[in-house]
Amino acid sequence: MDESVCQAYEDEIQALEEEIRILTEKYEDIRRETTFFSDEEILKSIKLFQRETRGGTKGHESPSDLKAQLESLGTDLSFFMTFTGFQFTSHSKKIVEKTRNKTVQKHRLSGKCHSLSFQLEFQLLEMQNNEKVSAVVSDLSIIMESGEDSGVSKFVSSTEERGNLLTFFRSLSTYAEWYEHRKHTFLHFKVLYQAFI
């Protein structure tokens, strides 16, 4: 192999290493800036949102107001998908049992995080005591194409055992983002390799 070709490869490798270092620093900065909320805070926000939406739809609203709200929700959803990389394609909810203080729901959810597809099925038990609401996830089943990555299979198994959806979504988001970076890097090397052949 020609020495100039070797030098070109070395220069390209150094440029990629520098790009990886910069991306890693950016990722760490974003990660430090991001505030993770506890399950309790998330549930409290969801309940507040539900109360606001229920209260807002009791009155008689004009079709133009409803259209504006729908457009606003569409914008919020688009921002959420861009920010997190999650795109939910389907969701179904079935109430299995409902009493005065207890509700059991069965949820099915599917979507993508960047280019990785996933499907979830779980039961959600909500218990209400006075104004406190507690929720427990059980019977969690996750389906993901792990390919040759045994780490994904182990992660899915441990998440199913613990039933922690928040950990699943956080970890999937991070993994899928780096999966995309790896895919682009390997594609770059493939194009570069084919150019020198």
UniProtKB/TrEMBL annotation:
Q: Gene Ontology terms, cellular component aspect?
A: chromosome, centromeric region; nucleus
Provide the alphabetized UniProt keywords. Answer: Coiled coil
Q: Which residues form a coiled coil?
A: 6-33
Q: Which GO terms describe its biological process?
A: CENP-A containing chromatin assembly
Q: Which InterPro entries does the annotation name?
A: CENP-P
Protein name in the entry: CENPP protein
Q: Which organism encodes this protein?
A: Falcunculus frontatus
Please spell out the taxonomic lineage of the organism that makes this protein: Eukaryota, Metazoa, Chordata, Craniata, Vertebrata
